[in-house]
Amino acid sequence: MSLDTASKILRRYDDVSYKISWFNWGEPLLYKEFETFAEMAKKTNAINIISSSMSLPVSDERLESLRNFDSVCVSLSGMTPEVYNVYHTNGNFDLVMKNLRRLSQLKLNNVRFKWLTHKYNVFQLTEARRFARVLGFKFSHGDLNCCVEDLVGGFDHELLKVPKFPRKQHFCHIRYWTPIDVDGNYLLCCASQNVKIGYSIDDKVSSRELRKAKSKTALCGECDKNEYWRMF
């Protein structure tokens, strides 16, 4: 995403009633202009959230810039290299642990440690919770969310598949979220990375109009019919 597009998003949603979750399904610390972007986010009224797997070399300056966000979510799926690499294929577990300890030393109060629960790693949940406490991070855990496209295509990876969550609500709550791609296009939902709905950040369109456009897409209907949204 260009800084210009990011700036448009920040201006459009510059209000305390908005939470902006940056780089969903991506790694923000790869962004070449991350420090500049972090300074931009700091100056807005919206609640800016960033997520990272901490699985790459990170400079001290880049770690420090995480102070500019209201919430920093760091995710992990294993407390040993063998378990971690089931989902994070070819990942560098030792580097992740090193980065998490470096982040802990900064004594930030905005870091949330998120444990990604799968069938194969649930036995390490207690250890993950203890590890987060030792590092001084807030702790949360959640089940796997795969893309709707995978579900429609017959997604059936037994190691990762999770049952539908029992929900009392009989509606799709993620239809009310507003995903935007790197070019500023509004997308169907956070469980779909590719379905555009015909509007961009440059259009003066209301949330109501965005929801109406979403409901007209074929994938939205398919998801609703099969209740895939219960997984999210």
What this model shows, in words?
Helices cover 34% and strands 19% of the residues. The chain starts with a helix and ends in a 6-residue tail after the last helix. The chain has two domains: 143 residues, Alpha-Beta Horseshoe (pyruvate-formate lyase- activating enzyme), CATH 3.80.30; 87 residues, no CATH class. The model has no long low-confidence stretch (mean pLDDT 88). Strands 1-2-3-4-5 form a five-stranded parallel beta sheet, with helices on one face. It has a two-stranded antiparallel sheet with strand order 6-7. It is globular, with a radius of gyration of 18 Å. It has 232 residues and is of the alpha/beta class. It contains nine helices and seven strands; from the N terminus they run αβαβαβααβαβαββαα.
Which terms would index this structure?
232 residues; alpha/beta; 19% strand; 7 strands; 5-stranded parallel beta sheet; 9 helices; 2 domains; two-stranded antiparallel sheet; pyruvate-formate lyase- activating enzyme
Describe the protein's topology.
Blueprint: H1 3-12, E1 19-22, H2 34-42, E2 47-52, H3 60-64, E3 71-76, H4 81-87, H5 93-105, E4 111-117, H6 125-135, E5 138-143, H7 148-152, E6 185-189, E7 192-200, H8 207-215, H9 218-226
Parallel strand pairs: 1-2, 2-3, 3-4, 4-5
Antiparallel strand pairs: 6-7
**Rg (CA only):** 18 Å
* CATH fold title of the largest domain: pyruvate-formate lyase- activating enzyme
Please state the overall shape, judged from the principal axes of the Cα atoms: globular
DSSP strand count: 7
Helix content: 25-40%
Structural class: alpha/beta
H/E order of the elements?
HEHEHEHHEHEHEEHH
Mind summarizing the main beta sheet? 5 strands, parallel
Query: Distance between the terminal alpha carbons, to the nearest Å?
Result: 25 Å
Give the averaged pLDDT, no decimals: 88
At the fourth CATH level, what is the homologous superfamily of the largest domain?
Answer: pyruvate-formate lyase- activating enzyme
Q: Strand order, main sheet: write it out.
A: 1-2-3-4-5
What share of the residues does DSSP label as strand, in percent?
15-25%
The CATH class of the largest domain is: Alpha Beta
Based on the coordinates given, report the CATH architecture of the largest domain.
Alpha-Beta Horseshoe
Given as residue ranges, the uncertain stretches (5+ residues, pLDDT < 50) are none
How many structural units, i.e. domains?
2
Number of helices: 9
